[in-house]
Write a structure and sequence with these properties.
The chain is α+β, with helices and mostly antiparallel strands. The chain contains 3 helices and 8 strands. Bound molecules: nickel (II) ion (NI).
């Protein structure tokens, strides 16, 4: 089911999300299905549970091709519950980001180039992966949502923050993430 996406200004986006304690439950399965329906409907690159008003540490991300990020390399479709990030580089790289909770805007955000992420899937199986570049950026963006951080809070240079339709007039006008 496609769920309503909360927009910046809603205090629920600023909370620290709770850990999932039980895996492979109908509730968790439905949550993850709804998150994929909602993300796919909006052509998002990722989505975090707090964005649909659910106070749990669940993120999803991934796509083969994304019309909103036409130059981005493929990112594997992933469900990550109770994620833990370990940065593998101090080096930061600037890149454009958007967010379904901040529709119509894009900004340049510095992110760690390389990281290891771990967590669990719906069934509780452990997942661990090393990622870099856009993949690592998406993971950092989504996991920030679990700590109440939206990407505009990480912008250093506000001269590179603006409306998608002005910055990238060739992109499809459809929501944002
Ligand atoms: Ni977002």
């Amino acid at each position: 089911m496609i769920r309503e996406i909360l927009k910046m200004g809603d205090p629920r986006l600023l909370q620290v999300a709770r850990k999932v304690e039980r895996f492979n439950t109908p509730e968790l399965r439905t949550l993850i299905e709804d998150m994929f329906d909602t993300m796919d409907h909006a052509n998002g690159a990722g989505l975090a549970a707090p964005q649909i008003g659910v106070d749990l540490q669940v993120v999803i991300f991934g796509f083969d091709r994304n019309p909103r990020y036409p130059d981005a390399p493929m990112v594997p479709k992933t469900v990550l519950v109770n994620p833990v990030l370990e940065m593998l580089s101090d080096e930061l790289e600037d890149g454009w980001e958007g967010c379904l909770s901040v529709p119509g805007l894009r900004g340049v955000v510095p992110r760690h180039v390389r990281l290891k992420y771990s967590g669990h899937d719906l069934m509780g199986n452990r997942l661990e992966r090393v990622a870099e570049g856009f993949h690592a950026r998406v993971v950092q963006h989504e996991c920030d949502h679990l700590r109440g951080i939206l990407y505009p809070m990480r912008i250093k240079d506000f001269s590179r923050f603006g409306f998608t339709e002005v910055l990238f007039p060739d992109l499809p006008a459809n929501g944002d993430d």
